[in-house]
Design a protein that fits this description.
alpha/beta
């Protein structure tokens, strides 16, 4: 990606606009920060999503290490320090991905763990590199995603697999993600960008209105998940204020194994 093609719109986010001869923007590439933590909101997604010259949106992590690894666990001591129910703007980001009338593609080049795994679940399409690693860590850290990351995940990969992902906190390769339905395709790492570009360009050739109607139709079947997520986030807020949840952070900082059962009530 040429450096001069990256246009900053926030200190923590950029979008990549690709131009054809007629000057129309065909795709946006949203970049997470290098630390791969949740430090974004849904506003730039909405900007791209309702731009009539945009055909597809691609979510990607900066660098090669990670797509996204969720919230900074060392900052969750009862709550994160930003906006949103738990101090992270997760609800608005998740809502933006689902609500914009353009397909949102997750470009996964590395770790998609925790909140990153949830983003892959919510995105319309997920294209993974052979270096991609998927998984959940919440119960190991005193956390959980009680909305799209659980109930909606069961719709995507099946009830039994979703429970395995959350209860065991195993890690899965890109090929395993494809097999369970979490990813659409897994390609050699050096071919990832070309594959993403091919999928995005193909979408840009399709009728945008037909695509928008199709996306709305897909989402209608699971629209109730937004209510589940909203209620779940309030439960999570209360959970974060317990010693049991804080034990995950305390153990992380002390570099020891957590003792959750010691604090469970």
């Amino acid at each position: 990606m040429p450096a001069d093609d990256v246009l900053a719109i926030q200190t923590w986010l950029a979008y990549y606009a690709r131009y054809y001869d007629d000057g129309n923007v065909d795709a946006y590439l949203a970049l997470f920060t290098d630390d791969a933590t949740f430090n974004v909101n849904g506003l730039p997604l909405n900007k791209a999503g309702y731009d009539k010259s945009v055909g597809a949106i691609v979510l990607a992590g900066a660098g090669d290490r990670a797509f996204c690894t969720g919230g900074d666990q060392s900052a969750h001591n009862g709550n994160y320090d930003g906006r949103g129910t738990i101090g992270l703007p997760m609800e608005e980001l998740h809502t933006a991905i689902r609500d914009v009338p353009k397909p949102v593609i997750a470009r996964v080049q590395g770790f998609a763990i925790g909140g990153g795994n949830v983003l892959c679940t919510i995105c319309d399409l997920t294209i993974a590199s052979e270096k991609a690693i998927f998984g959940q860590v919440g119960p190991k850290m005193g956390s959980v995603d009680p909305g799209y990351g659980t109930a909606f995940l069961a719709r995507v990969v099946g009830e039994k697999k979703a429970r395995e992902i959350w209860y065991l906190n195993k890690r899965y390769s890109g090929q395993e993600a494809v097999a369970m339905g979490l990813a659409n395709v897994c390609v050699p790492h050096e071919q990832l960008d070309a594959e993403v570009q091919q999928w995005a360009e193909t979408i840009c050739e399709r009728s945008p209105t037909a695509i928008a109607i199709a996306k709305r139709s897909f989402n209608m079947d699971t629209a109730h998940q937004s209510g589940i997520a909203g209620m779940g986030m309030y439960a999570l807020k209360l959970y974060y204020d317990t010693e049991e949840s804080r034990e995950g952070v305390n153990a992380l900082m002390a570099k020891r194994k957590p003792e959750f059962r010691r604090y469970a009530k």
